[in-house]
Amino acid sequence: MAKFQTVKGMRDFLPEDAILRDKAFTIIKNVFERFGFSPAITPSLEYYEVFANKFSIGQENLKNIYSFDDKSGRKLALRFDQTVPLARLIACNPQLPKPFKRYEISRVWRYEEIKRGRYREFWQCDIDTIGTKSMAADAEIIACALQALIELGFNDIKIKINNRKILNDIIEVENKNDVLRVIDKLDKIGESNVKKELQKLNIDKKQIQKIFDVISIKGNEKVLAKLESIVKTDEGKNGLNELKEVIEILKCYFDEKYFEIDLSLARGLDYYTSTIFEIVSGDKSIGSIAGGGRYDKMISKFAESKEDIPAVGIALGIERIIELIKLKNDKKKTVTQIFVASVSDENKKDVIKIAKDLRQKGFKVETDISGRKLSKQLEYANSLSIPFCLIVGSEEVKKGVYKLKDMGKGKEIDCSLDEIVNVLKDRIF
Amino acid sequence: MAKFQTVKGMRDFLPEDAILRDKAFTIIKNVFERFGFSPAITPSLEYYEVFANKFSIGQENLKNIYSFDDKSGRKLALRFDQTVPLARLIACNPQLPKPFKRYEISRVWRYEEIKRGRYREFWQCDIDTIGTKSMAADAEIIACALQALIELGFNDIKIKINNRKILNDIIEVENKNDVLRVIDKLDKIGESNVKKELQKLNIDKKQIQKIFDVISIKGNEKVLAKLESIVKTDEGKNGLNELKEVIEILKCYFDEKYFEIDLSLARGLDYYTSTIFEIVSGDKSIGSIAGGGRYDKMISKFAESKEDIPAVGIALGIERIIELIKLKNDKKKTVTQIFVASVSDENKKDVIKIAKDLRQKGFKVETDISGRKLSKQLEYANSLSIPFCLIVGSEEVKKGVYKLKDMGKGKEIDCSLDEIVNVLKDRIF
Fold it and tell me: Does residue B349 sit in the same domain as residue B206?
């Protein structure tokens, strides 16, 4: 019986899960770097005020922050996301050449109700571009995230795009942010519930109907045509131009089937100022797997700068992504590719030297480190589903030719250490 | 002016540092996996009792733990190390096949006084093997850590090895653990200070002299010969056999010049039961860069098991390692290898398509996303020391041949996209 458990809402990952997570992170990192995003790392702990100030994550999210006083009475917080620490980092480092393109893949903590698929410690994969207002940056962020998802094996995905400036134009009420948060729930709670909630916010029925007349239009060309005719403020016109530009540039990266303008997309966070986007799976039950947008005002507040420090970013919802990958991939219990087994105690040292050679060739190799007999060694290799065993007895050592056993198929072939590279190259690498 | 700073003792890593850390972690991970260690991941937060119970890190370390009550009144702690969470994980998962070999590379937190090279958030790289008492596991752990350090570029290193059972035999006093903690400081504070501190622990001078007569012997053969003659308890004899066995097996992995028995090596933590080791640089000012040992009793306490669950592990002192790597490596400000520059606005879309092609070939590529003129684009590429620029104008697009500029040498050559792979393969990959 274990004396202690994991903290509620937090998880251990045994190798079978950790290997899969690691594989996903490696693919994502590789795509981020091919798009010229470099790693940056921020601490897990920030001063509480970094999150609690009015330009940050918003009052309603503060209840979900893990915060505490350290032994010197400093109020600290485990980070809620990676975007706010990035804003703090940029403010602390005004010398960085712009545009500054960074990724961060790490843990965040939220004290939330525990539901299926919700955890109190989870990982985020973020890319952000700081220091340019150009829509080329927004398009690049979207394209990079889409490419990562495609390389992770998702094909049936779509990017929904909208622009906050357009929403501000369409929604002619005082409490715009409250309205946006309600509209953002459209996919989850449906049209009639959204309408009810909007009424509760004292939005009159005519205005609600007007909003729905616009946000329910589908088809990129139709939406743009409609917007041309109804957008009236300078802000709205500016937003419409931005939207058209993002779409235009995105076409250089991807086929148009991948993206659609969705005026009902609102995104919950207050800090977005322009382009907003979400990547969703074609399978509607799965919902959003990435989301982000442009936030041109936040960083300047952190930097106490009078001028905007524009920024745009996206976060991949990696926990959901990994759940989906799990459905498609066989779990591996170990990274080990070859178990080098010793026929008798006399061969224990030979085995270490052979393992050394194979490791130098790049293979992931285990040997017996428990003083077990051959049959028990093979049992162990089987229990971890190690794909190949190399059997080493004195006779084999003398010849320099060993039995390589394919543990899945049960077949054996004789080969030298140099031949193994060729024999296994299509099977393992 | 930045409104907020990083929390005291914690650090941001800008790309120039994050790239180097990432490179070091990748090398280490690769070696760990080639030795058949698989990743496992434990949470950052544990229940406070996991660290505070008497089989854990020890009373004197508790003051350095970041602990707090969560909103439901659970007392939580940010993890102090990765070993204790591993013990908890093993206790929670008795089904795991043994030996269980895992690595974890992640953050730990200690509320310590801030000195040069000491931080309150830092990274540990751990490998541990659970479930075998065989010295083959100890030797493998040492060999794997040594191999990682060699691949990181350290050649002038040595492993110091000792065995707690031998120390227990030699040190004939009640308060053995207190004495061990003092002896462990020998390298730092010198012989005379250690002797003074031992006197403060009421160890009589004769006993102190006897201890020093043994622990100051150098040379593996001499030490072993001396031990043969003085070790008298069963425990001591057992420890001596274990020590000889580890040395014997280690010789299969590495030349003997890499390891020496050092009876003055004690290691601070109470939980070690047998083999202990430390890897030090030949440059004495640098000190220990990795350390660990066998701890056969801890996990069984966590599992409430009557039988021992033996374990052996090592942690690489990655912060110190990275400081040393920094001295030898040029810092890179970005991962980007090629900046694809557009001669005029007309080429912005061509540039995106060319970047797409180069990314598919595996290159890390940036394009202009700020609407800048060519000269400003090249300035930006220079400010990040991006090694190559590809200049794209309408004429070049028509021909399919572009100017590839080596930004370091200032030289240009003409080449097609397919030729770039060959031109750069020795320069970048």
Answer: no
Report the CATH number at residue B361: 3.40.50.800
The CATH number assigned to the domain holding A232 equals 3.30.930.10
Is the ipTM, as predicted for this complex, more than 0.90?
A: yes
B342 with B315, same domain: the answer is: no
Unique residue bearing structure tokens 């099977």? A427
**Distance in angstroms (rounded) separating the CA atoms of residues B50 and B119:** 23
Chunked into runs of 10 residues, chain B (429 residues) has average pLDDT values of 91 97 97 98 98 89 94 94 97 96 97 85 97 98 97 93 94 84 86 92 89 90 94 96 97 94 86 95 82 96 94 94 86 96 95 97 96 96 96 96 94 94 78
Please name the residues in contact with A3: beta carbons below 8 A apart, sequence gap of 6 or more. B53, B91, B301, B302, B303, B304
Tell me which residues of chain A, numbers 179 to 238, contact chain B at a CB-CB cutoff of 8 Å.
Answer: none
Last residue of a domain, one of B328, B356, B385: B328
Sequence-separated (6 or more) residues with CB below 8 Å from residue B363: A34, B337, B338, B420, B424, B428
pLDDT, position B362: 95
Domain boundary (B298, B328, B358) is at B328
Residue in B closest to A355 by C-alpha: B35
A46 in any annotated domain? yes
Which of B20, B31, B37, B41 to probe the A interface (max A CBs under 10 A)? B41
B59 strand-pairing partners: none
Interface residue B19 vs chain A (CB under 8 A): yes
Q: Residue A25 pLDDT more than 80?
A: yes
Taking contacts as CB-CB distances below 8 angstroms, the residues of chain B near A369 are 99, 129, 132, 134, 136-137, 140
Contacts of A4 in chain B (CB under 8 A): 46-47, 49-50, 88, 91-92, 302
CA atoms within 13 A on the CB side of B169: 23
Contacts of B128 (CB under 8 A, 6+ apart): B83, B86, B101, B102, B103, B141, B311, B312, B313, B314
Is position B333 within any domain? Answer: no
Looking at the structure, do residues A406 and A304 belong to the same domain, yes or no? no
Q: Report the SS3 class of residue B336.
A: coil
Rounded to an integer, the average pLDDT of A1-27 is: 95
B357/A28 Cα distance (integer angstroms): 18
In a domain, B4, yes or no: no
- Name the pTM for this structure: 0.94
Residue A373 is part of which domain span?
338-428
In a domain, B2, yes or no: no
- Window A:328-347, CB contacts with B under 8 Å: 333-336
Residues A220 and A95 in one domain: yes
What is the average per-residue pLDDT within A155-168? 94
Contacts of B101 in chain A (CB under 8 A): 334, 366
What is the β-pairing status of strands B38-39 and B100-109?
parallel
A6/B43 Cβ within 8 A: yes
Q: Which residues of chain A make contact with B89, given a CB cutoff of 8 A?
A: 12, 14
- Hey, is the C-beta of A302 within 8 angstroms of any chain B C-beta? yes
Closest CA to A195 of A185, B252, A334: A185
Residue A194 distance to chain B (closest CA, Å): 31
* Same-domain status, A281 and A360: no
Domain count, chain B: 2
Report chain A residues whose CB lies below 8 A from the CB of B57.
none
Co-location of A242 and A345 in the same domain: no
Tell me the pLDDT tens digit for each residue of A164-196: 999 999 988 888 888 888 888 888 889 999 999
Q: Is there a single domain that holds both residue A222 and residue A290?
A: yes
DSSP state of B17: H
Question: Do residues A26 and A159 share a domain?
Answer: yes
Query: What chain A residue is nearest to B55 in terms of C-alpha separation?
Result: A3
Residues in chain A with CB shorter than 8 Å from the CB of B2 are: 88, 91-92, 94, 302-304
